[in-house]
């Protein structure tokens, strides 16, 4: 079988199949094992799937430090969801000491990659000076971009902070 021969895509698919019970009995333990094999070979999707297992404690107790490790690996490989969530980890101090400048850094990366939640969050960082130098022009830019993509909270922030 391809997955047993270290074929990353096959390992990822088996992780998905066992997670969803798609064609096999649902088995979160086997799902985790196949995701971990793919993650250890550098697959960013599998790395990000492990974050959920470690955060939620699906088959093991919650381990926020391990969740952070896998989230960071996936984020550094360009996984946009991981980039956004890494910003949240730094913002909230989950699995790592709180670091607002790192939170803003990862929000901006995710925002530049099109994540509207990150656009809103980096806008908030700029408008409040959290982790970045306060800059209402940058805040407006990011709020407007998120609002243009349908994020009503961004539109509200434009009004709240009187940025138009």
Care to describe what's here?
By secondary structure, the chain is mainly α. Helix content is 69%, strand content 0%. It is built from nine helices and no strands. The protein has helices at 8-20, 28-40, 44-56, 64-76, 80-92, 100-112, 116-128, 136-148, 152-160. Helix 5 runs antiparallel to helix 6 (100-112). The longest helix is centred in the N-terminal third of the chain and has 13 residues, at 8-20. The radius of gyration is 18 Å and the shape is elongated. The termini are far apart.
Topology:
Blueprint: H1 8-20, H2 28-40, H3 44-56, H4 64-76, H5 80-92, H6 100-112, H7 116-128, H8 136-148, H9 152-160
Helix pairs in contact: 1-2, 2-3, 3-4, 4-5, 5-6, 6-7, 7-8, 8-9
Which features does this protein show?
164 residues, mainly alpha, Serine Threonine Protein Phosphatase 5, Tetratricopeptide repeat, 9 helices, 69% helix, 0% strand
The CATH homologous superfamily of one domain is called Tetratricopeptide repeat domain
The overall average pLDDT, rounded, is 92
According to CATH, what is the topology of one domain? Answer: Serine Threonine Protein Phosphatase 5, Tetratricopeptide repeat
Run of helices and strands: HHHHHHHHH
Query: What is the number of strand segments?
Result: 0
SS strand fraction: under 5%
CATH architecture tag of one domain: Alpha Horseshoe
Low-confidence stretches: none
Question: What helical percentage do the residues reach?
Answer: 55-70%
Radius of gyration computed on alpha carbons: 18 Å
Shape: elongated
Largest sheet: none
Q: Counting H and I runs of at least 4 residues, what is the number of helices?
A: 9
Protein structure class: mainly alpha
CATH class of one domain: Mainly Alpha
